[in-house]
């Protein structure tokens, strides 16, 4: 689905009575997503399911479309992610838009994260992320940069690895992802990824 098509779809949903749209989003999320991502969108580390609550709705819908079209690939060793892609094939574009809108309106998730505390280099490593993701990792929707704060450290590390390995950020249709891949490729070691993530998880948006 093109960005123009999604925008038109989102507008049509926005024109629904707010109570109807919210109820639809609640039901659709419970049916399709909550089993892995949690009843409040808080995620589930045991299932390698990230927190989705309070992320930008356009970003969420775009990632669903990227999964379905193959623009964003999944880790072949992550069986849950592969199952999610199969599930998404049966969710309509209108339903995706309602789920994304519902998630965007939720409160920030409260996470139990066991990421190691940041070291002295961690803050400096994050300096290269501020221009897009913000000083508090709050994200910048206008730049297609999602919020990173209040996300699991293990998930952030996995996504940096996905960018560096080419599972994300290589498709011509994913311009924000290609920009992110260039930044991820500049991280020279796994130790630096761990240090960077350890700082991000301490931030409050």
Automatic annotation (TrEMBL):
Electron transport as a keyword of this entry, yes or no, is: yes
- Residues covered by the Cytochrome c domain: 20-107, 112-204
Identify the SUPFAM superfamilies for this entry. Answer: Cytochrome c (SSF46626)
A GO molecular function assigned to this protein is: heme binding
Has keyword Iron? yes
Annotated signal sequence range: 1-23
Please tell me where heme c 1 binds in this chain.
33, 36-37, 84
- Binding locations of heme c 2: 129, 132-133, 180
Task: Give the free-text PTM comment from the record.
Answer: Binds 2 heme c groups covalently per subunit.
Q: What is this protein called?
A: C-type cytochrome
Q: Which cellular component terms (GO) are annotated to the entry?
A: periplasmic space
InterPro entries to which the protein is assigned, alphabetical: Cyt_c-like_dom, Cyt_c-like_dom_sf, Cytochrome_c4-like, Cytochrome_c_Oxidase_Subunit
Q: Where in the cell is it found?
A: Periplasm
Main subcellular localization, coarse class? periplasm
Name the UniProt key words of this record, in alphabetical order.
Electron transport, Heme, Iron, Metal-binding, Periplasm, Signal, Transport
